[in-house]
């Protein structure tokens, strides 16, 4: 049985700005990189804040079949929505690719240089034959799609602020921190999105609601001592990554075990959201909505039904709406072919419940 939701006994220390000139210079450089970035751009009102690019798709010599992740999931989500007449392709927002300067906002230069090694990338995304390929191909066929999704997550912050919500049909690389990748996550898009929001949107309080089946150890390490970020993480403790150091920095942990049922899961989520509501007052919610909680997922090992996933998403969107806080949703993990249809059905449900508006892109009031 899943354990109760609770706040960690040792909260993060208060955030403080360093007085050292080195840290001040680093923060100034970070701020300037954000201010001069091209990833925030004007989106016309004919679009809805649903972000996707065909460049998200990872496919080259069958490497996409060497990992359980369905790299065509992102494309299929949009195809389902368009086939059902819910969305027109002209309404979808295409992001720009995150540049080296964009990535340096969070990542160290040494980490980004390490991705010039095909072996290093193969370890991060857990596709070992990739190590044998020239890095130029790895950059083009693997890392370019990831960088495009990073651009989508960052842009989603801007659109959520403007329109009340935004969904990046991709992203959610929550195992990557500024210094380390892993678990199919090469770039820390969640951390980047939040830092851009701090500077460009004048936001000072962000809540991460991470409901992927796996612990979000990447963003937990990045915001370990940052009181501006409150992390609610609900995950299966019996699967990857079991990062006990990062767990110390979760503000609100909900521990699950393999086999957790739909009813148990939703009950724990209700309890967690009630606690979060009284613990923190965010100006932005970043929702990591992995579908690896689905019954049958080989890596998540939970037993949540498709209707349970739809209810989960509705609860989180309703939480943000009732607090009148903009929300960014990322699709994150999900290792079954059925995930794409479940996500599409969930987006349709959010529209039917007037939690999002797929006609104008304006959040329903």
From TrEMBL:
<dbReference type="InterPro" id="IPR023696">
    <property type="entry name" value="Ureohydrolase_dom_sf"/>
</dbReference>
<comment type="function">
    <text>Responsible for the deacetylation of lysine residues on the N-terminal part of the core histones (H2A, H2B, H3 and H4). Histone deacetylation gives a tag for epigenetic repression and plays an important role in transcriptional regulation, cell cycle progression and developmental events. Histone deacetylases act via the formation of large multiprotein complexes.</text>
</comment>
<keyword id="KW-0678">Repressor</keyword>
<keyword id="KW-0805">Transcription regulation</keyword>
<keyword id="KW-0539">Nucleus</keyword>
<keyword id="KW-0804">Transcription</keyword>
<dbReference type="InterPro" id="IPR044150">
    <property type="entry name" value="HDAC_classIV"/>
</dbReference>
<dbReference type="InterPro" id="IPR037138">
    <property type="entry name" value="His_deacetylse_dom_sf"/>
</dbReference>
<feature type="compositionally biased region" description="Low complexity">
    <location>
        <begin position="1"/>
        <end position="21"/>
    </location>
</feature>
<dbReference type="GO" id="GO:0000118">
    <property type="term" value="C:histone deacetylase complex"/>
</dbReference>
<feature type="region of interest" description="Disordered">
    <location>
        <begin position="1"/>
        <end position="24"/>
    </location>
</feature>
<feature type="domain" description="Histone deacetylase">
    <location>
        <begin position="67"/>
        <end position="348"/>
    </location>
</feature>
<dbReference type="InterPro" id="IPR000286">
    <property type="entry name" value="HDACs"/>
</dbReference>
<dbReference type="GO" id="GO:0040029">
    <property type="term" value="P:epigenetic regulation of gene expression"/>
</dbReference>
<keyword id="KW-0378">Hydrolase</keyword>
<dbReference type="InterPro" id="IPR023801">
    <property type="entry name" value="His_deacetylse_dom"/>
</dbReference>
<keyword id="KW-0156">Chromatin regulator</keyword>
<dbReference type="Pfam" id="PF00850">
    <property type="entry name" value="Hist_deacetyl"/>
</dbReference>
<dbReference type="GO" id="GO:0141221">
    <property type="term" value="F:histone deacetylase activity, hydrolytic mechanism"/>
</dbReference>
<protein>
    <recommendedName>
        <fullName>histone deacetylase</fullName>
        <ecNumber>3.5.1.98</ecNumber>
    </recommendedName>
</protein>
């Amino acid at each position: 049985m899943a354990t109760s939701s609770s706040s960690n006994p040792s909260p993060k220390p208060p955030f403080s700005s360093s007085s050292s000139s080195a840290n001040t210079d680093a923060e100034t450089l970070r701020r300037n990189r954000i201010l001069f970035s091209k990833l925030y751009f004007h989106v016309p009102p004919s679009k809805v804040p649903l972000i996707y690019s065909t460049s998200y798709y990872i496919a080259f010599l069958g490497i996409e079949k060497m990992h359980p992740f369905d790299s065509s999931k992102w494309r299929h989500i949009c195809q389902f929505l368009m086939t059902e007449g819910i969305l027109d392709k002209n309404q979808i927002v295409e992001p720009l690719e995150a540049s080296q300067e964009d990535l340096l906002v969070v990542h160290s230069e040494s980490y980004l240089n390490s991705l010039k090694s095909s072996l290093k990338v193969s370890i991060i995304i857990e596709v070992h034959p990739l190590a044998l390929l020239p890095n130029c191909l790895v950059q083009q066929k693997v890392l370019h799609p990831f960088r495009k999704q990073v651009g989508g997550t960052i842009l989603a912050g801007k659109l959520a602020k403007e329109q009340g919500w935004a969904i990046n049909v991709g992203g959610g690389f929550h195992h990557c921190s500024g210094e380390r990748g892993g678990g199919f996550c090469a770039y820390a898009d969640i951390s980047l999105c939040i830092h851009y929001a701090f500077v460009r949107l004048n936001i000072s309080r962000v809540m991460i609601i991470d409901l992927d089946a796996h612990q979000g150890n990447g963003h937990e390490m990045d915001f370990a001592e940052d009181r501006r970020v409150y992390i609610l993480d609900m995950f299966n403790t019996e699967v990857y990554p079991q990062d006990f150091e990062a767990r110390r920095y979760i503000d609100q942990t909900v521990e699950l075990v393999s086999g957790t049922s739909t009813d148990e899961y939703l009950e724990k989520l209700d309890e967690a959201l009630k606690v979060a509501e009284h613990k923190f007052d965010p100006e932005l919610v970043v929702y990591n909505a992995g579908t690896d909680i689905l019954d049958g997922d080989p890596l998540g090992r939970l037993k949540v039904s498709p209707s349970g996933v739809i209810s989960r998403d509705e609860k989180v969107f309703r939480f943000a709406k009732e607090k009148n806080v903009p929300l960014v949703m990322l699709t994150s993990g999900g290792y079954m072919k059925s995930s794409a249809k479940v996500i599409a059905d969930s987006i349709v449900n959010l529209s039917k419940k007037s939690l999002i508006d797929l006609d104008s892109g304006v959040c329903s009031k």
